[in-house]
Task: inverse folding
């Protein structure tokens, strides 16, 4: 950790003086300079090899192995390069990869080695404990006094030297990430790619239950109706099949883009511009639901579809429609889709990404296939009730738009929008209508509900006027004025680089590592919401809080995110006192107070 | 494209330089984890540590070294010559034996020589040897320099608590500073792994003096 700061200092210093002639570069970490690989042989032997990096060497005389009982094991070491110079003296060294065999170990074997960077530094002795199966035992905690051997009787410690490498590790902010995090990783780990695909198909089925699919129904219905009397169930199924497959393919393309783009996708999806566009699409969908216009494919596409009398032409047209429809539905399902895409981006697996999103599209299209098979007649007959349902969905779309826009608009403006929506709905439900004495129970219930909505809307309006930020607590400025102060009272240490993160983590555990960025609007929502919850704030007090600011989405920021296996902001990583991420504690995306408290509890002292 | 990349690298380097300079100062001035309130004073001004050069010098140069470390020994004459020529440098040679038994013995004997006033001579003799030393090499080198290894050992044993404590602190400081091996220099408040040549040494001392 700090080492790297110093190495960077050396680099900087070298640059400053311009004396970079034959200087060796900053020394690598010893584990990188001499990469240790253990391969168990069928005979029970362990093949041990060090990949010595160019410009580095290992001492032949410093390679040793100890049996579990402490006796030194006889090793057959290959001849090294004989080195004889006035400073090094006569010695045998390895500048190239070197391999040895530890014959059939009967228990954990301690391996020792030591080397240098040519013309740079000589590393402190390194050691590792090899289990019988060839795994390297995790570093043990540093004993309290690693130099106890010095105080032992006898002036010269006969061991291969003080275990300075142990001491070295203690100085580093060792950070172990929990494994198997994430939806895709989980599914892939349990049952391979097939389970990932099934998972996404199921996810698509769930999405088909959202009103997002609704705009596609009239498109499909229109397409089938235009087929006229010649429409058979088979023909209908083929047409909708082509439509759904094309739509799924569009989603598949999205998967490819996601897997390729990596973490950048998150940055794009979180940009105020993207959120603005998506919110606008929701408003448009809502207006369509309110009957302002009928959502239709461009006339040219429709014409192409009608023109095709032969099967091929029609199927092609259906496919074009399907592909286009995905463009409409895509933004509508953004919120749930974003999570899936981020996981795909995390895997970076283009084929898997495409297949998973294709499966999702198929799942989403299943209800449409039913329409295709049984014809539009299975759709409910249009009527007054259908209009009400549509208006209901329209309200939901508007609410989605406000919820999304809440991430980029100032708090009071959001409250004002809610106020308008609630009051409007209330009035529409008849809150302000005079009830006839003989009004039915339904009418009265609607009026009552409407009155409640108007009341809620008024409160939102009052909150907006008072400058409240949180729609869930519109009167917060009135109720307790300390809320904002609490939010400010949970300070984070902000880091932007790997080194700074390691330095910040050093000795500061348990910790919350919060990956955030200025352009991450979800992050603002989290900070304004759950993170300023007094309970969360209090619980966070027990943790070191480190903000990894990736606002400048540069190589350094991406390197830090790669280290943390974070796909993008917001990601919260909870590290326990031992420097290990608690299993299942990671929070990605929007979170609520309960999520935060649960994750904090996993690592809190 | 190339130009763009170079400009990017340069600005990244500059940024890194600025942040690291701040970071180093902070890292050195801050008590590192796992050590009880380690301060820069503890590293530069350990009361048990013999001091070379000008004890009243305005810049302190610290070297963590080992008597068998080739690059420590190769750069040693340059270091001594520069300290001598400068005249205003406090030099602190911190024993950090990482090469096993012979290195530990060499450090013990040379520290034992402090009492007799032969610390400088003993250290100079051992630093002028080739890197690889056996325990016998250590003794014979000292004898060849007209010193008495047996008396040095006795003196070390006499004051064993002091010298073992000093070496123990050295290695703890090395661990706290994240040093990977020897040589490692601290000049002023900048840490340099590896042995700088004389020009770089002079520049680092000048830089430390400038910032002091």
Result:
């Amino acid at each position: 950790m700090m080492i790297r700061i110093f190495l960077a200092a050396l680099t900087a210093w070298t640059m400053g003086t311009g004396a970079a002639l034959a200087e060796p570069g900053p020394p690598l970490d010893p584990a990188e300079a001499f990469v240790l690989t253990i391969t168990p042989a069928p005979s029970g032997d362990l093949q041990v090899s060090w990949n010595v990096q160019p410009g580095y060497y290992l001492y032949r005389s410093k390679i040793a192995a100890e049996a579990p009982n402490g006796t030194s094991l006889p090793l057959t070491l290959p001849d090294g390069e004989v080195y004889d110079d006035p400073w090094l003296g006569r010695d045998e060294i390895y500048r190239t990869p070197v391999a040895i065999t530890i014959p059939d170990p009967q228990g954990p074997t301690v391996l020792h080695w030591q080397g240098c960077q040519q013309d740079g530094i000589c590393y402190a002795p390194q050691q590792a404990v090899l289990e019988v199966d060839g795994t390297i035992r995790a570093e043990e905690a540093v004993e309290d006094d690693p130099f106890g051997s010095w105080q032992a009787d006898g002036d010269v410690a006969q061991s291969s030297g003080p275990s300075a490498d142990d001491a070295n590790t203690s100085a580093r902010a060792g950070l172990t990430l929990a494994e198997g995090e994430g939806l895709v990783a989980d599914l892939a780990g349990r049952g391979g790619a097939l389970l990932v695909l099934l998972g996404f198909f199921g996810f698509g089925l769930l999405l088909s239950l959202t009103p997002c699919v609704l705009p596609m129904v009239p498109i499909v219905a229109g397409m089938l109706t235009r087929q006229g009397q010649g429409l058979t169930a088979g023909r209908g199924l083929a047409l909708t099949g082509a439509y759904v497959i094309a739509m799924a393919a569009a989603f598949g393309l999205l998967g490819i883009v996601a897997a390729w783009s990596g973490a950048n996708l998150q940055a794009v999806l979180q940009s105020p511009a993207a959120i603005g566009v998506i919110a606008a699409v929701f408003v448009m969908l809502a207006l369509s639901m309110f009957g302002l216009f009928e959502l239709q494919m461009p006339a040219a596409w429709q014409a192409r579809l009608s023109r095709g009398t032969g099967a091929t032409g029609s199927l092609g047209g259906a496919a074009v429609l399907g592909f286009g429809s995905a463009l409409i539905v895509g933004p509508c399902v953004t919120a749930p889709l974003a999570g899936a895409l981020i996981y795909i981006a995390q895997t970076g697996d283009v084929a898997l990404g495409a297949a998973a999103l294709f499966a999702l599209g198929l799942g989403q299209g299943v209800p449409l296939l039913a329409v295709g098979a049984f014809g539009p007649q299975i759709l409910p007959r249009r009527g007054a009730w259908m209009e009400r349902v549509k208006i209901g969905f329209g309200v939901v779309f508007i609410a989605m738009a406000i919820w999304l826009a809440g991430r980029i608009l100032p708090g009071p403006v959001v409250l004002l929008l809610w106020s308008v929506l609630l009051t409007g709905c209330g009035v529409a439900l008849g809150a302000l209508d005079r009830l006839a004495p003989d009004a039915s129970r339904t009418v009265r219930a609607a009026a009552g509900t409407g009155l409640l909505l108007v009341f809620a809307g008024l409160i939102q309006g009052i909150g907006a006027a008072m400058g409240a930020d949180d729609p869930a607590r519109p009167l917060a400025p009135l109720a307790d004025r300390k809320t904002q102060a609490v939010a400010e009272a949970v300070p984070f240490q902000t880091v932007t680089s790997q080194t700074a993160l390691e330095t910040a983590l050093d000795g500061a555990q348990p910790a919350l590592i919060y990956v955030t960025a200025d352009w991450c609007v979800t992050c603002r929502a989290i900070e304004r919401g759950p993170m300023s919850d007094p309970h969360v704030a209090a619980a966070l007090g027990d943790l070191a809080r480190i903000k990894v600011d990736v606002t400048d989405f540069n190589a350094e920021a991406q390197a830090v995110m790669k280290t943390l296996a974070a796909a993008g902001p917001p990601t919260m990583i909870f590290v326990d006192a031992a420097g290990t991420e608690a299993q299942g504690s990671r929070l990605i995306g929007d979170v609520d107070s309960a999520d935060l408290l649960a994750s904090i509890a996993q690592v809190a002292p | 494209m190339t130009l763009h990349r170079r400009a990017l690298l340069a600005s990244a380097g500059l940024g890194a330089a600025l942040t690291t300079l701040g970071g180093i100062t902070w890292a050195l001035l801050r008590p590192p984890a796992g050590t009880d309130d380690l301060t820069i004073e503890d590293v530069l001004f350990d009361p048990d540590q013999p001091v070379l050069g000008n004890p009243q010098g305005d810049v302190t140069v610290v070297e963590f070294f080992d008597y068998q470390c080739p690059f420590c020994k190769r750069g040693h004459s340059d270091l001594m010559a520069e300290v001598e020529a400068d005249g205003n440098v406090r030099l602190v040679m911190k024993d950090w034996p990482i090469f096993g038994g012979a290195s530990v013995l060499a450090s013990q004997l040379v520290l034992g020589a402090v009492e007799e006033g032969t610390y400088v001579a003993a250290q100079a003799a051992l630093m002028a040897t080739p890197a690889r030393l056996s325990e016998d090499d250590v003794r014979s080198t000292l004898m060849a320099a007209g010193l008495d290894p047996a008396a040095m050992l006795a003196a070390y044993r006499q004051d064993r608590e002091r010298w073992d404590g000093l070496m123990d602190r050295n290695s703890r400081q090395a661990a706290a500073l994240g040093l990977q091996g020897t040589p490692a220099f601290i000049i002023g408040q900048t840490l340099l792994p590896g042995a700088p040549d004389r020009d770089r040494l002079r520049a680092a001392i000048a830089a430390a003096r400038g910032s002091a």
In short: Confidence is low (pLDDT under 50) at residues 1-36 of chain B. The longest helix of chain B spans residues 2-29. The first strand of chain B starts at residue 52 and ends at 53.
